[in-house]
């Protein structure tokens, strides 16, 4: 048989190339957005905790919010990117596409509630640690029920809360930073609630970003 002409186009890989490149570009974009969200939330929430004197850093480090524990915002940004990409991936593998309140207005309300929960933990005075823990646990579960309601979201939120709390306590025990309260049970009691609600919030952002084209605005 005659050899094919050198200039003959090879049509087989043509449809796959642009699609693969587009998928990679979309993944990078979503990762950068989630990383930025994680960094911003870390800076805002860290400021709330410092104002409450829950966390304690050296005086020269508290000079500005951006210099306090410089490694915390990048770590939170990286964690947000991983969690935000993991949520839609788990939904896809379980065959349970998440359709509950898939709109940016709902996502923004979820972020506002999450910041409000952190504000409550930093600003409100509670009679005892048990009351604080129960209140934040109820608020965190309420956030999940209002904006998520998926089994995968609940399971991932609990897993994230456990792992993040464990890592935080290891950092405390190794002297990377410390809490002003000598009662470590006090710190450990509300940390899982914050991490759980944070995981649900970032997961909702990741799910919405994975949808690609924004939905039309929802009118209450």
Automatic annotation (TrEMBL):
KW NAD (keyword) present: no
Gene Ontology BP, a term: SREBP-SCAP complex retention in endoplasmic reticulum
Physiological role: Mediates feedback control of cholesterol synthesis.
Ranges in a coiled coil: none
Positions of region (Disordered): 1-23
Subunit structure: Interacts with SCAP; interaction is direct and only takes place in the presence of sterols; it prevents interaction between SCAP and the coat protein complex II (COPII). Associates with the SCAP-SREBP complex (composed of SCAP and SREBF1/SREBP1 or SREBF2/SREBP2); association is mediated via its interaction with SCAP and only takes place in the presence of sterols. Interaction with SCAP is mutually exclusive with PAQR3.
Predominant location: endoplasmic reticulum
Transmembrane regions: 32-50, 70-90, 126-147, 154-173, 185-206
Keywords: Cholesterol metabolism, Endoplasmic reticulum, Lipid metabolism, Lipid-binding, Membrane, Steroid metabolism, Sterol metabolism, Transmembrane, Transmembrane helix
GO cellular component terms given for this protein: SREBP-SCAP-Insig complex
A GO term, aspect molecular function: lipid binding
Biased composition (Low complexity): 7-19
Localization annotation: Endoplasmic reticulum membrane
Similarity comment: Belongs to the INSIG family.
Protein name: Insulin-induced gene protein
Protein topology in the membrane: Multi-pass membrane protein
Annotated gene: Insig1
Keyword Metal-binding on entry: no
InterPro entries, sorted: INSIG_fam
């Amino acid at each position: 048989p005659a050899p094919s002409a050198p200039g003959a186009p090879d049509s087989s890989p043509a449809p796959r190339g642009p699609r693969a490149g587009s998928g990679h570009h979309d993944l990078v974009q979503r990762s950068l957005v989630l990383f930025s969200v994680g960094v911003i939330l870390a800076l805002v929430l860290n400021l709330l905790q410092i104002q409450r004197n829950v966390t304690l850093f050296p005086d020269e480090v508290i000079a500005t919010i951006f210099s306090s524990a410089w490694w915390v915002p990048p770590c939170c940004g990286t964690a947000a990117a991983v969690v935000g990409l993991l949520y839609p991936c788990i939904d896809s593998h379980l065959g349970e596409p998440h359709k509950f309140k898939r709109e940016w207005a709902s996502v923004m309300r979820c972020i506002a509630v999450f910041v409000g929960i952190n504000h409550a933990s930093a600003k409100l005075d509670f009679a005892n640690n048990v009351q604080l823990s129960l209140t934040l646990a109820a608020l965190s579960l309420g956030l999940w029920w209002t904006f998520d309601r998926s089994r995968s979201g609940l399971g991932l939120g609990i897993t994230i809360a456990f792992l993040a709390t464990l890592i935080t306590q290891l950092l405390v025990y190794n002297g990377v930073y410390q809490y002003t309260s000598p009662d470590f049970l006090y710190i450990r009691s509300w940390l899982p609630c914050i991490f759980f609600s944070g995981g649900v919030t970032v997961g909702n952002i990741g799910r919405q970003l994975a949808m690609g084209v924004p939905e039309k605005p929802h009118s209450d």
